[in-house]
Amino acid sequence: MSELSAYKIIPEPELLFNNNKRDVHPLRGLIKYGPYSLKMGFPNQIRTAYLTPINESKKLDKLLLELNSSHTPKEALNYYPQYPGFKNIFRIPLSAATPNLVFELSEKCNVFAQKRDGNGLIGEIIEKVGKSLVRNSNFDILILYLPKEWEACFEFDDFNLHDRLKAKLALFNIPVQIINDRALTRNCRANVMWGISIALYAKAAGIPWKLAALDKDEAYIGLSYAIKKIKETNDYTTCCSQVFDPDGTGFKFVAYDTKEFITNYKGNPFLSYQEMQTVLSKSLNIYQNDHAGRIPKKIFIHKTSHFTEEEIQGAFDAFGDKTEVELVQIIRKSNWFGIKIEGAKSGYNGEKIPAGGALYPLERGIYLPISPNECLLWTQGSVKGVNVQKAYLSVFKEAALKPLPDPILIRRFSGQGGWHATCASILALTKVDWNNNTLYKTLPVTIGYSQNFANVVKQSNDIVNEIFDYRFFM
């Protein structure tokens, strides 16, 4: 670990691939070593089924052909390697749907979409999915194509077609890949293929990569809230995202309806002592069921709002004296920024600059305590060792959008020791979102996944108090 003034730097987290080979670059690691679960022999193939409007299945056939072909990246060339085809990456075949697994939606769907009858459209889709269940053992992933002509029904008022479909289809235990015309027409095909292929592999219960260096006796929970309007009152559903395995896998969710809460001026809900204890006790039970009854020595609980005294006490009483509980608020917009000033012979992109110094984006992984209970962490920033064109240059993923990376603000409400372990685990958890193909996300999956799940919960009352694997919501 290097140190610069009050800053400290966490090295870019390493990922584990097949045979425990390591790389900091997720796509490069997949190409070189294959996915982590390859050594387990599962999945050994991925079979698809299609659900499309009438006479549109050829578009998905073309997409599968693309997934099994090679593509040269046209965007972010310093990060994206050549896409070599699904089988060359994952070492298993990806099959297009056979004729008996191509299901077509009725013409009614076009009428419902044009009228913005979301419930009617959902009903037609679910009915067709139900009829396909008799052949469920013959496919691993259902690919659902939503054409541009239905765009008026994608999202309006409180209705979200994507999230409503995920909520309904999760009850069937069918992993679904939703495809729209943007995925079929985007110019950089390598970018699209990387994203879809990783998602397909994860939805088929594969593990693309794991984190290499988290403590095996620790666990992580993210809390988010879905707020649903029922007549004249608000019904709040607390959504828990559990990252059970310390290497960042085993994501499971449970949604729990809460009745005892208060709200602040922003409308954010805060739970009573009893509700917080109940929610986290459910999370602990799920953890124990997957870990032979044992409890973690330390639990990190993340959310985006602060913890009240009742919530803090409820959290401590849910886990008892044998588990250290660290309660962390993560705020994406911190209103802070930082720059790196140093003399150099060449600039960030290799250009020559005059003597006397230059401005650079800060390295990802820098953290700076600003008070006893607050710390800034740069989950965005320049990263060494991932440039696939010029290995000696860093990559700043957000460079095209802004000149300087933003830090997140971490506020700790309980927990002991320094900031390194807290920041290191958050930084690592920004690299295990398998529903994307980038180097990292700004927020850890404890926050990102639980927020995604909360959005789905808003669309349905049917998935409360049930335990779900995250792959049904990707």
What layout of secondary structure does this protein have?
Blueprint: E1 3-4, E2 7-9, E3 15-16, E4 22-23, H1 26-33, E5 46-53, H2 57-67, H3 86-90, E6 94-95, E7 102-105, H4 108-114, H5 118-132, E8 141-146, E9 155-156, E10 159-160, H6 161-170, E11 176-180, H7 181-185, H8 189-203, E12 210-211, E13 218-230, E14 233-243, E15 251-258, E16 261-263, E17 269-271, H9 273-290, E18 298-303, H10 309-319, E19 324-331, E20 339-342, E21 358-361, E22 366-371, E23 374-377, E24 382-383, E25 395-396, E26 408-414, H11 420-428, H12 445-457, E27 467-469
Parallel strand pairs: 5-6, 5-7, 5-8, 8-11, 13-18, 18-19
Antiparallel strand pairs: 1-2, 2-22, 3-4, 3-12, 9-10, 13-14, 14-15, 15-27, 16-17, 19-26, 20-21, 22-23, 23-26, 24-25
Helix pairs in contact: 4-5, 5-6, 9-10
Structure description:
The chain is of the alpha+beta class. Helix content is 27%, strand content 26%. It is built from twelve helices and 27 strands. The chain has helices at 26-33, 57-67, 86-90, 108-114, 118-132, 161-170, 181-185, 189-203, 273-290, 309-319, 420-428, 445-457; strands at residues 3-4, 7-9, 15-16, 22-23, 46-53, 94-95, 102-105, 141-146, 155-156, 159-160, 176-180, 210-211, 218-230, 233-243, 251-258, 261-263, 269-271, 298-303, 324-331, 339-342, 358-361, 366-371, 374-377, 382-383, 395-396, 408-414, 467-469. Strand 3 and strand 4 (22-23) form a beta hairpin. Helix 4 (108-114) packs antiparallel against helix 5 (118-132) and helix 9 (273-290) runs parallel beside helix 10 (309-319). The model is unreliable at 1-5 and 351-357 (pLDDT under 50).
